[in-house]
Structures are given as structure tokens and as C-alpha cells.
Design brief:
Helices cover 37% and strands 24% of the residues. The protein has helices at residues 8-49, 56-63, 169-172, 212-250, 261-271; strands at 54-55, 74-93, 96-107, 112-121, 134-141, 163-164, 180-191. It has a 5-stranded mixed barrel with strand order 2-3-4-7-5. Helix 1 (8-49) packs antiparallel against helix 4. The protein is elongated. The chain starts with 7 loop residues before the first helix and ends in an 8-residue tail after the last helix. The relative contact order is 0.15.
């Protein structure tokens, strides 16, 4: 009855089902792993941002050789902006497409740090930075490195960089004066105050858990549906074959000699005889 389950097409069906089931379970646990990573990131950012701001030079000394340890910390620093600006293109903010404006700030101590002054929508003019000494409150960020598969920034050694896809401090420091800090800053506020035409500061990251938990639940549901469908397909095939076997058995021809005339006559004669009960 169950031998058909070992036929080649059924073996291929089993492999497809269990392969799909294994893939869906892996995707579900991958989403749960992403959820754990997101929660860890949220905890880190919350812990760093909640700490009180400290002077930039003091924060760099605290970081030592590990700039990533101070990412998302808030700091304040004073200095003068350089006139040249760099456009970090292909950015978005609050559903709008645009660019971020990067400007180098020469601090009072003589070092240089790149400041992401904020976002400007496509088509808007980029306002130049203040020419007077400025004190800023900012969040520390670490530079980005090009990942495999990402596009490379155009380079021309004879001209300064004016547009970038990512903030690569190793590449930008060649055109900046003094010692360049190993981190850059996302502007939060400034003195003199920011005007309505200045770039809009980049907000802190959204600290939610994202859709990972719901995606994991969906993959678990899909995997369960695959197994249920596999069981139902097998049960239907068994039922179909059983019905076909019963139909074949009831439609088989009568065996020879099973309906002989003398048997029929004897049966009719017996039925017409009056048999008296014993006295």
C-alpha cells in the first residue's frame, strides 16, 4: 500500500518538501538572530547617548586605539569651519531624498574633525558654514569602509574630493590640515544657533526592534504549512489508491461455475417445499 512513496517522483517530492522546510526554519532563526543584534544595538546606542556630553579631546583620549568604543557618545567642541564642503550624496531623511553636507572643523587645539552638518533635500542650495568661531554639540560616529560589492568613490589625486558615497577618513584626510580625528561628528546643535536655511541635523537612529520577530513567525508558519501539505498529499494519495483497489475488486468478473442452473433449480425447489415442524 505504501510502496508508491519510494517511487522516484515521490522521493523528489519528499526532498523538495524537507529542503523547503529546512530553508524556512533557517530563515526563521536568521530573523531571530537579526532581532538579537538589533536589541544589542539599541541597548548600546541608548547607553552611549544617555551619558553626559564631554569635551571632544577628553573623549578621544578615553577611546585610545578603539574609536568604536565612543561611537554615539555626545561631545562638544569649539573651532572654525573650513570653507570647502563635501557632499555625501544619495542620503534620505524623513522620506525625502537628498545629500548630507560634510565640513571640516579646525578645533581650538589645532586638530581637524569632519562634521556632518546635516541633510539638504535635492535641489536645495547648500548654505556655507559660519565663518566665525563655532561651538557644536554632536554625536561621535566611526567612518565607513567600502564593503564587497559596493561602488567605489571616484578618485582624482590632482583634485580635492567634493562628493563621496561614504565617509572614508583615510581618503579625506589627505586634503585636510593638521591631524585629523579618527572619527567624524553628527551635528546636534551649535552656537551660533542654526538657521532655517542651514542643513537639518541628522536625527539619532530609530531604536525599535524592526519587523524581525514578525518575519520569524511567518517563516515558522510557512514551514508548518509545508509539512501539513506534505501529510495531506500523502493521505490523499493513499485514499485514492485504496478507492481504486476497492473499485477494481468489486468490478472483477464472476468465477466460472458459481451460478450453475442446477444450483438455481435446487434453490427454487427447496423454497417451494412445505417443511413441517417436528411434532
Amino acid at each position: 500500500m505504501y510502496g508508491f512513496l519510494l517511487r522516484p517522483k515521490w522521493i523528489a517530492f519528499h526532498l523538495l518538501v524537507f529542503g523547503s522546510f529546512a530553508l524556512m526554519i533557517w530563515l526563521a532563526f536568521w530573523q531571530l538572530d537579526r532581532l538579537d543584534q538589533r536589541r544589542a544595538f539599541n541597548d548600546l546606542v541608548t547607553e552611549q547617548i544617555d551619558q553626559p556630553p564631554v569635551p571632544f579631546a577628553e573623549l578621544l583620549a578615553e577611546a585610545g586605539d578603539d574609536p568604536a568604543s565612543i561611537e554615539w557618545r555626545q561631545t562638544f567642541v569649539s573651532g572654525t569651519y573650513l570653507a570647502d564642503q563635501i557632499i555625501w550624496f544619495n542620503r534620505s531623511q524623513e522620506g525625502l531624498a537628498g545629500d548630507n553636507v560634510l565640513t571640516a572643523l579646525v578645533t581650538d587645539s589645532g586638530s581637524t574633525v569632519i562634521v556632518n552638518r546635516g541633510f539638504v533635500s535635492l535641489g536645495e542650495d547648500v548654505r556655507p558654514p559660519p565663518t566665525v568661531e563655532t561651538e557644536i554639540l554632536a554625536r561621535v560616529r566611526v567612518p565607513q569602509a567600502r564593503q564587497r560589492g559596493e561602488l567605489t568613490d571616484a578618485s582624482n589625486a590632482s583634485e580635492p574630493v567634493t562628493e563621496v558615497r561614504r565617509i572614508d577618513l583615510g581618503r579625506l584626510s589627505a586634503q585636510l590640515p593638521g591631524e585629523v580625528a579618527p572619527v567624524y561628528l553628527d551635528l546636534v546643535d551649535a552656537i551660533p544657533e542654526l538657521g532655517p536655511n542651514d542643513p537639518v541635523p541628522v536625527p539619532a537612529p530609530t531604536l525599535d526592534e524592526g519587523p524581525h520577530l514578525s518575519y520569524a513567525a511567518q517563516w515558522f508558519i510557512f514551514a508548518t504549512c509545508v509539512l501539513i501539505g506534505w501529510v495531506l498529499a500523502i493521505r490523499r494519495s493513499i485514499r485514492t489508491r485504496r478507492n481504486e483497489a476497492l473499485t477494481a475488486a468489486t468490478s472483477e468478473p464472476t468465477l466460472p461455475g458459481s451460478d450453475r442452473p442446477d444450483d438455481a433449480g435446487a434453490a427454487s425447489s427447496t423454497s417451494g417445499t412445505d417443511v413441517s415442524s417436528p411434532r
